[in-house]
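Hey, weird one. I pasted the RagB/SusD family nutrient uptake outer membrane protein sequence into the form twice and got a warning about non-standard characters only the second time. First submission, copied straight from the form history:
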Amino acid sequence: MKRITKYSIWSVALLATSLASCGDFFDVKPYDAVVEDEFYQNQEDLNAAAFAMYEPLSKDVHKFLLWGDARADMVTAGQKEPEPYINEFVINNISVQNPYTDYSSIYKTIARANRQMEKVEHVFAIDNKLDDRDAKAYYAEALLLRAICYYYLVRTFDEFPLILSDHAENITYTDVNGELVSRATNKLTSSEIRGLLNYPETKQEVWLQIYNDALSVMGLLPLNYQWNRNSLPANERYGRVSQPLAATFAAEVAIWLGEYQTASAFCNSPISNNNHSLGTSGGWPNQFTASTASQHSMFLLGYRYDNSFETNRLQEFTSHRREDGGKYYLKPVSQTISKIFSYEPTDVRTTFSYKTFGKDTVIWKYIGLDNVSSMRSAYQGNASWHVYRSADAYLLKALADLLLDDYSSAFNFINNIRTARGLEEYEPEEIDYTNKEMMMEMIFRERAREFAFEGKRWYDLMLYSKLSGENKLAEIVSSKYYGEMRQQVKQKLQTESNWYIPVDPTLWNNVN
């Protein structure tokens, strides 16, 4: 096996156990209650540690809903008297004390990913059953998952540390004299650790790190879920990163960085992969209601309540039924929903993304079991949280090709989505598909319908603003408010720095 290059940075590690003020900000153990000296001895240990990398993210899906949707134009508060910290997201006035700004779970995944990458070579050296291909796949899996974590951070927060190496026992850093120093982690105070954190000077540094990591894994991950030379079962397949996911993720990051030709080329792989499809309109809801994932999905954070009583807070956040544990924190914005969905009622996404019961309009994706009114059992919210779906690749392909002035291709991929969702194709003679501004608006409208309430809308509006050269985010988000508040929010969001959530790490806690 060729030696895997390890990343080094100027600073970086955190004490996970002895700093009460930091709580459990970083958990460097591969999974709970493991004895480190007895672990990482064979590929079974690597596999167990791989699954453990995803676990912290699964606990935070309600935060992803807040970060990516509550702030945007399609979601508002459900309660007449909103919970204050939830409402801060809805009104775009988030305080640093807000517990839902806690991104420590993301850093738990980052810490576990860093540990996994630095242990692969050790396991490869002592386990003769672990071949070169699988060792590289374990490494690439951790690297891609870490890149996805930083992708969340760079688009969401105004400030965060960049941690690319695991130093659970020791911290290595450059002192004031320029000397490389290594000290035992448990000998450092919390203030010393915070002082050693590497905060990137510009976000471009993080963007390039994410992109380079995504490119690095492309040839290392299994193409069709062949882990340890065995195909994963359906209920595990889409809960783990893969080569098609890497291509889709790299394509999206490439669009953010202006690499449109590369983005278009990357989308070809997942689109042509037989393990992924847009499916049919009748099967579209299954990706949210089925007990196992479908080909619609590319990467999800899943739950199996019947196996281990795993649950998430999406039912609590979106259900209006108190007897089911619903607190109705968030609901769809009526005027936005009407504008985005209602003019084409045959769209399957219209009948399943949201529902109206009397005076209550609810986000249905996470509480519904069919297109009518059947709901999940009380206190058993186990709907999967989709990070990427097959439709991502198609709509990213449409966007990249539009930016390359390949109007016919962009038009074709929009129609692919429409027909798969029960809509008629647009006819070329009816649509001015060479109008780039109109086509871009159409693509982001399709994304709004396809990914409604899946934590993408705020980031889509950020990207729409970047690509159009206009502040679409301020204009569109402010449209959900009334009167003086509409103008206040619009004015605030005219300043791009206000698009990011402020955070004070010293105030993190576990109340959420």
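That's the output from the first submission. The warning seems to come from a hidden character in my clipboard, not from the data itself. The beta strands are 75-77, 170-174, 180-184, 226-227, 230-231, 297-301, 330-332, 354-357, 360-363, 385-389.
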